[in-house]
Design a protein that fits this description.
Order of helices and strands: EEEEEEEHH
Strand order of the largest sheet: 2-1-7-4-3
Shape: elongated
Oligomer: single chain
Number of strands: 7
Number of helices: 2
Helix content: 10-25%
Radius of gyration: 16 Å
Length: 95
């Protein structure tokens, strides 16, 4: 997920965003998972101005496995629901 912050501090969420999506010549990297837009334009389906910031929030496969193991110890019989099933997130995963 991506969190877009504009000049007024207002936030907008973008689904299916990863750190790889932040690799763009119109973005200035400000941290490992944050960028600042350096050129007005359409990005990820929305118009964004220079100065807008985008932060990506994502979990690793290890974190997901740890949660699954934790739930397995605490609950008898449960289902995991994946809310984001875009191919870029599920390729190579065994369900």
């Amino acid at each position: 997920m991506g969190i877009v912050t504009n000049h007024l501090g207002k936030h907008k969420l973008i689904n299916a965003l990863s750190k790889k999506d932040l690799e763009n010549s119109n973005f200035k990297k400000t941290s490992d998972n944050e960028i600042e837009i350096t050129k007005d334009g359409f990005y990820f389906g929305s118009f964004m101005n220079k100065g807008f910031k985008i932060k990506v929030e994502e979990i690793s496969d290890e974190q997901l496995d740890n949660v699954t193991q934790f739930l397995g110890k605490k609950l008898n019989g449960y289902n995991i629901i994946y809310y984001q099933l875009d191919s870029k997130f599920v390729e190579g995963r065994i369900f």
